Amino acid sequence: MDIEIVDYMEMALNSAALAARRGEVPVGAVIFDSRLERVVANVSNQMIGRHDPTAHAEMLAIRAAGNMLGSERLVDCDLYVTLEPCPMCAAAISLARIRRIYFGAYDPKGGGVEYGARIFDQPTCHHKPEVYGGIKEEKSALLLKNFFEARR
């Protein structure tokens, strides 16, 4: 596996761990702009802290990257996220025209890419990014498992 992919997923995992310490569901997201050759967003879930059900890591990363780049289109960007995006996030990823998604754990219950709504397979989807799942899957899944076990 490409070393950069692992590095960016580790960055997302570190952000997810920070979210867990804040009491947020531990999901982290990083957006890398291949044209600029740098990270343009590195965030984690903030739904509780912001009192905002849309403050998923992916949504915050897309907003941050768009602001950083001055564009609603992130065509040269790749998203690294620790959990398979939900349908809301998958739709935003499509609208932002993100080039590739690399995600960690699969989400059979709430996913919107490989499971559930499968947003990118819908005929109304305007842009389908390249998708690579299971990157650092065990570490991503364990972070989520430990977080929810501690809550029970």
Topology:
Layout: H1 3-21, E1 28-33, E2 38-44, H2 47-50, H3 57-69, E3 77-83, H4 87-96, E4 100-105, E5 130-132, H5 137-151
Parallel strand pairs: 3-4, 4-5
Antiparallel strand pairs: 1-2, 1-3
Helix pairs in contact: 1-5, 3-4
Textual characterization of the structure:
By secondary structure, this protein is α/β, with parallel strands linked by helices. 40% of the residues lie in helices and 19% in strands. The protein has a five-stranded mixed β-sheet. Helix 3 (57-69) packs parallel to helix 4 (87-96). The termini are far apart.
Quick recap of the structure?
The chain is an alpha/beta fold and 152 residues long. It has 5 helices and 5 strands. Helix 1 (3-21) runs parallel beside helix 5 (137-151) and helix 3 runs parallel beside helix 4 (87-96).
Give the SSE string: HEEHHEHEEH
Q: Decide which structural class fits the backbone.
A: alpha/beta
- Radius of gyration of CA atoms, rounded to a whole number: 14 Å
Shape: globular
Biggest pleated sheet: 5 strands, mixed
Give the strand line-up of the largest sheet: 2-1-3-4-5
Beta content? 15-25%
The tally of beta strands, per DSSP, is 5
Spans of 5+ residues with little confidence (pLDDT < 50)? none
Distance between the termini: 36 Å
- The amount of helix comes to 40-55%
